[in-house]
Amino acid sequence: MALFGRRKKQQEDVVEVAETPTLPPPPPTDAGGLRSMEDHRAYLLEQIEQLPAFGQQILDAIDLSICEDIESDIDLPGFDNSAMDGYAVHAADTVGAEEGQPVVLAVVGEVAAGGWSEEPLPPGTAIKIMTGAPIPEGADSVVPYEVTDRGSDDVAIRVPARTGQHIRRRGEDVTEGDLMMRTGERLGARTIGLLAAIGVDKVMVRPRPRVVVLATGSELVEPGRPLENPAQLYDSNSYLLAGAARADGAQVFRVGLVGDDAEAIKQSISDQLVRADLIITTGGVSQGDYDLVKAVMPELGMTDFCQVAMQPGKPQGFGLIGEDRVPMIMLPGNPVSAYVSYEAFVRPVIRKLMGIEPLFRPQVRAIATHLIRSAPGRKQFARGVVTTDPGGRRRVTAVGGHGSHLVSNLAKANALIVMDPDVDQVAAGSPVTVWLLDENG
Amino acid sequence: MALFGRRKKQQEDVVEVAETPTLPPPPPTDAGGLRSMEDHRAYLLEQIEQLPAFGQQILDAIDLSICEDIESDIDLPGFDNSAMDGYAVHAADTVGAEEGQPVVLAVVGEVAAGGWSEEPLPPGTAIKIMTGAPIPEGADSVVPYEVTDRGSDDVAIRVPARTGQHIRRRGEDVTEGDLMMRTGERLGARTIGLLAAIGVDKVMVRPRPRVVVLATGSELVEPGRPLENPAQLYDSNSYLLAGAARADGAQVFRVGLVGDDAEAIKQSISDQLVRADLIITTGGVSQGDYDLVKAVMPELGMTDFCQVAMQPGKPQGFGLIGEDRVPMIMLPGNPVSAYVSYEAFVRPVIRKLMGIEPLFRPQVRAIATHLIRSAPGRKQFARGVVTTDPGGRRRVTAVGGHGSHLVSNLAKANALIVMDPDVDQVAAGSPVTVWLLDENG
């Protein structure tokens, strides 16, 4: 300190102090030192950049977000073509045709789908034509098989043709220059079909983020192995979160468990940085003496540990780790806390990485089927089952207690019931906000 | 032939004539020779067997249908444990504690999550305990850090403890023998978490069917390549259907295009039989002279070509092909016909192979925003956009014309408007049935 003080004094106007990179200033807290859920979510999101776009084969780009506006280079159909199997004719040649007194025309050839001829159809003749085949120059209507004798050399036509009948016009579906997809839209089967139809085989999309999931805790055991003492329990968090991230479109690497050992935690995280666009951990971020994630991660990058005004999910950690500043979200270790935190923070981050809007779950109102109590002061997330009646009205029933260790009811839920910090109860029959967990916006 | 005839004669009463296998008798047709959409769908489905179940790692089984009832072998929690960081005590020892006059207990040790001791907690003492750590025998409540001085040798407790406070009881979430999942349920992130929590790492599921998609037609060109003459067009069907099958959970192999050549079609199908649980083709099933799929497939297996009372999608083909009787669905070649046929027939077949219920798209009613005309006599499928207002009321607007070649409007649609054969129009403001294309039941 003394030395530093001297040097600083001597070189005051020439030295540039190397700035240690730091996270942006965190959001404000309430009187109790808690950050709001919305503030924390916004704080994380502002530090996440969309992944760079790359070219992908259209079929492999399904569900991904497109990073370019796509205009059609061609007309669809590309040429006037037949909507029926039949005969292309000059409509004028069929005037007066009727049952018992058909018009007979010479059949001068046949045009299949994909066939093409520069030669115009002479007046007074017909040419056999298949569905999708180009209308020869001069012909102005198609007479379907059904009203002919299906002749080969000559054809007898029993009904006069209307000009233009059964012809699909060039460009009636898509015109060259039409905008087919906009930046930010996601590819689905039907848009992939449309892109193929205009001849596009590759598109620029944001890739699936590589998400590493890691659970910490010496008490955890891999499912499928025996519990060695009665105080051990199976790791469910890393499976729960890996499954959720996969359902949200990520490419997930579930890493084995790490015990409560500072060096092992640091090593495991360091090993994963090279392949991660996002790291998610659970456990070790609370106030306990064994909450080592919180203790060691500041050595590996810029971190932010805080308490969020939500229940469950109060202790939260975030960091930009290593040289590449890989985003890392450190969630609490109780399964329900971890899952609610995933929904509140991780899913929006994954969607931002992928360039998918909206970032958040569909948030709707449902009628509470019974009294739902809430603990005021923190935003409450309760597990719920939403049903929709045939008229489209949604009702919600809370399932399970408030314990953040209760996984069986989490599996039954299809929604989170969300109650603001100033709410202490929702009466039966009153509307309450829910996040729909099985609907992807 | 002569030899065979002789032998047959000699052994007339012992020979068993080998029965040529045939498909079951097809459903009846209407006066116009058309089969109803529902009858044809049922006819296909009765000939499809679910794929055999196999053991899969739980995380890789996401979205798949489970083929066993799963009961828990353990209690959850597996032991009484602490819901807080604090001290495990005998509640009786804290009677009378208050601010300014705390009860002081000797701290006899510390128990971390995963820690375990057979030794009971002596009366008059406390033991430091972390969230999730087992409650020592004898202790009956947990005093959180917040109401103590966080002492190490002795702890001063300022509030009396209630018996049982902050203890999560063994089995309060799941009891050994509880049914966790039933046959037929699908795995999602939250159920995967639950299975992991009870120690299950593998489950029996029906696999993703291997679906081969192949488009026929000499006029077709691969997207990304130049059109060589003005009558060619890009193959969009195989991309559309491959994308749809992938979205529906299949493992899709999109095979290159096959021209209108009988031998090439037979060869391509034969080559795919070995890796296919289902083959889908488009094109070549109508009445045209180049509809070769219909012409050649009876040589490779048992087939059924028919006309269905629906529009689009009238010509349909089905077969059980090769020695293994691989199901094959032969769809018409117009993109919209192919897609509507996929929704009506292929998707339910894929879901039956996977053991997923319900087989059909969610079918709901929506209010038509305008007059929608229908051609009576066949079930009509129109492309529609369904919107849901905040109150949950659905409205539907038809997009695009009736032409089955119009792919741009298909990409905009999120629903099929379904009108029965006896309907000729739906008035603005009236309800109409829709299939929701972006919701997976």
Q: Descriptors for this entry?
A:
homodimer, about 450 residues, alpha/beta, Molybdenum Cofactor Biosythetic Enzyme, Chain A, Molybdopterin biosynthesis moea protein, domain 2, Molybdopterin biosynthesis moeA protein, domain 3, 6-stranded mixed beta sheet, 5-stranded mixed beta sheet, 8 helices, about 20% helix, elongated, disordered N terminus
Record the SSE blueprint.
2 copies of one chain form a homodimer.
Chain A lengths: L1 H9 L26 H10 L7 E4 L12 E2 L9 E2 L3 E4 L13 E9 L13 E5 L11 E4 L9 E4 L9 E2 L10 E3 L7 H9 L4 E4 L4 E6 L4 E2 L11 E2 L2 H11 L3 E4 L7 H11 L5 E5 L9 H5 L4 E7 L2 E2 L3 E7 L4 E6 L3 H20 L8 E6 L3 E2 L5 E10 L5 E5 L8 H6 L2 E5 L5 E2 L4 E6 L5
Parallel strand pairs in A: 5-6, 12-15, 12-16, 13-14, 16-20, 18-23, 21-24
Antiparallel strand pairs in A: 1-11, 2-10, 3-9, 4-6, 4-7, 5-8, 17-19, 19-20, 21-27, 22-26, 23-24, 23-25, 25-27
Helix pairs in contact in A: 2-7, 4-7
